[in-house]
Design goal:
- It is a single chain.
- The chain is α+β, with helices and mostly antiparallel strands and 346 residues long.
- The chain has helices at residues 71-79, 81-95, 123-164, 171-214, 221-227, 236-263, 269-277, 302-317, and strands at 11-18, 25-36, 44-51, 57-64, 105-107, 119-121, 218-220, 231-233, 280-285, 289-295, 329-334.
- A hairpin with a 6-residue loop joins strand 1 (11-18) and strand 2.
- Helix 3 (123-164) runs antiparallel to helix 4 (171-214).
Length: 346
């Protein structure tokens, strides 16, 4: 599409994206043209020309039926779609959103009053169609063999004519001519056999077509499923577990937010925080508090230890308490393995 459009631009905007940290920003200037889609005026088309920091320009067309939302908001949402895709991948990898929760099934007999029925191709007609496809496939192979045989027979006949046109034939030529005449006879017999096979296949197709005329064309999909004793996966348990998974994801992201802001490294902040949440801990139980000494699974750099310590300090300022109605404070502390001393009492 030529740019700018003849009708004029609808607006301009700039999207800023952070790369590896919040201060590492890149600006993407955008120009857009908002109009009804010519192919279907019920839809709205927003044609966007975007330029990256290296000066490379692309055009993207957005289709939507939302006529109320501001065009710039729609553009920001579409250009942020990879954040959504990454979130779906994170849900799958770490929270198991695509896992099969239960192998429970429901028979279609039980679903007869709740599912919407429809007419589908009958079982008899499907069987006839399967047979017809098999015969047609076999017929195609035989026709191909016949075509190849006719081509070879034509070449053989051409060689025979050339040799018979010679005034004198040597002993070797006479021997070769005899072989060619024998091949010609075999080609004729082979063509006759292939023709009979093709005729038989055509007869079989005609019989199937006649049978197809007399069978019931459609039948109830529900009735068919019940007769075949088909079942459907029971989604109830899966639906419940997926709700819990989404809640767990939201809790994790809410807990991640302070660490993400303090760490300010978008390359591995999720992984570092996940490693931290999976660390072991040693409890110091007192009458009015419980201190959780987090023992990290890996060795943290001094900078990362300072970040985690700062996050824990901010959490401790909120005066967290145990959810057992004891009013005991919960204190988080990042410890080191060198502090851990194990003693055995006999």
């Amino acid at each position: 599409m030529s740019w700018p459009p003849v009708d004029g631009l609808s607006g301009r905007m700039v999207i800023q994206r952070a790369r590896n940290r919040s201060t590492d920003l890149r600006s993407y200037p955008l120009e857009y043209w908002d109009r009804p889609w010519p192919k279907n005026t019920r839809l709205r088309q927003i044609v966007v020309q975007a330029t990256n920091p290296k000066g490379r320009t692309i055009q993207v067309a957005i289709l939507t039926d939302d006529w109320q939302r501001n065009a710039q908001e729609i553009i920001v949402l579409i250009f942020s779609r990879w954040l959504q895709e990454n979130d779906f991948k994170y849900l799958d990898k770490h929270f198991g959103i695509n896992q099969i929760t239960s192998y429970g099934v429901i028979e279609y007999q039980e679903l007869s009053q709740s599912v919407q029925d429809r007419q589908v191709c009958s079982g008899e007609l499907k069987a006839l169609q399967t047979q017809r496809r098999a015969i047609r496939s076999r017929q195609s192979r035989v026709l191909l063999r016949q075509t190849k045989s006719d081509h070879e027979a034509h070449q053989c006949e051409k060689e025979i004519v050339e040799m018979e046109s010679k005034q004198t034939l040597s002993l070797e030529d006479k021997k070769q001519l005899g072989l060619l005449r024998g091949k010609r006879t075999r080609y004729k017999n082979k063509r006759q056999e292939l023709g009979q096979e093709i005729e038989s296949l055509n007869h079989g197709l005609d019989e199937l077509d006649q049978k197809a005329q007399g069978v019931q064309k459609t039948e109830s999909r529900l009735k068919q499923s019940i007769e075949q004793k088909m079942v459907r996966m029971d989604p109830a348990k899966k639906r419940l577990m997926d709700q819990l998974r989404v809640i767990a994801r939201n809790v994790f992201y809410k807990a991640l937010a302070p660490f993400k802001k303090a760490y300010d490294n978008y390359r591995d902040d999720h992984d570092q925080f996940r490693q931290l949440t999976q660390s072991a801990g040693v409890l110091e139980v007192k009458a009015d508090s419980i201190m959780v000494n987090i023992m990290p699974r890996v060795s943290y750099s001094p900078q990362l230890r300072r970040v985690i310590t700062k996050v824990f300090q901010e959490l401790n300022k909120r005066q967290l308490v145990l959810p057992d109605n004891s009013s005991r404070k919960l204190i988080l502390r990042l410890a080191e393995r060198s502090e851990l001393q194990v003693t055995l009492r006999k």
